[in-house]
Amino acid sequence: MTRFDGKVAFITGAASGIGLATVARLGREGAKVYASDINAELLARETARLSGEGLDIHTRVLDVTDETDCRAAVEECLAKFGRLDILCNVAGMVLTKNFLDVSAEEWDWVMTVNTRSVFVLCQAAMPHLLETSGNIVNISSAAGLQGLPYNSAYCASKGAVLLLSKSLAVEFASRGVRVNAVCPGAVDTPLVKNIQIPEGADMALYGRMFPLTGYYAQPEEIAGAVAYLASDEAKFVTGSALVIDGGQTAV
Ligand SMILES: NC(=O)c1ccc[n+]([C@@H]2O[C@H](COP(=O)([O-])OP(=O)(O)OC[C@H]3O[C@@H](n4cnc5c(N)ncnc54)[C@H](O)[C@@H]3O)[C@@H](O)[C@H]2O)c1
Questions:
Q1: Which DSSP letter does residue 242 get?
Q2: Which residues contact 217 (CB under 8 A, 6 or more apart)?
Q3: Which of 150, 154, 215, 216 does the annotation list as catalytic?
Q4: Residues 92-104 pLDDT 10s
Q5: How far, in Å, is the centroid of ligand 1 from the Cα of 92?
Q6: Residue 147 belongs to a domain with what CATH number?
Q7: CB-CB contact of 37 with 64 (8 Å)
């Protein structure tokens, strides 16, 4: 027996980084995985590699900013697999800019991709999770716990994901659904590699964004934490913020 035998997991942001590593981890531990991402080509390529290992993966191109399609995807997952046990909201984006240069449109976009999508998918999944005593793992960030310079919209979006998770944990604890958040620090993924440091940035302030360990985590390390929270080993864990940040927020 593996930890997720007979379980079905819905994962967003599944084509890359932490989401892809989570697909691999839960799939290798027996879950049937409904893997979604906006990047159709990358999703097809990366999940084909995992399906080749024998993992049971159904792919779905999904833009998490499309509420109607998010709700349709949850229903499709139910139609395909017959149940839903685990929702992992991983899809996200970062905006690194001087605060004075952030437009209201950019602010709304970050909040829509990172936060509104989590609200929509949690709401769509909840009736099904109530049936299976399932759980939700949302990817927040160290940036949801501490103020990082040049990341006003990102910090706000991830802080909101964390408190949304805690609010749902409280509301649904007695009904058997657990909700947790993971707060990674710097993880070696394309999201981080593509960050452009704003012109004139104060590097002393910017340095707060780096782990004390001197190296970044690998996405598999975050996926391991997601798997723990999603598993029955964490049955007493709800409303938690699991920080995996190489000490970044300890100072
Ligand atoms: N990498 C880090 O250091 C780090 C730290 C803390 C939190 N996070 C969070 O982890 C999550 C995953 O990021 P990652 O580092 O693995 O990055 P990544 O760029 O490797 O993966 C993000 C995935 O999300 C998908 N995505 C983006 N917008 C989408 C949309 N509108 N609809 C559906 N899919 C969309 C992308 O196509 C991509 O496959 C994000 O929420 C990010 O904020 C990352």
A1: E
A2: 184, 185, 186, 187, 188, 211, 244, 245, 246
A3: 154
A4: 999 999 999 999 9
A5: 4
A6: 3.40.50.720
A7: no
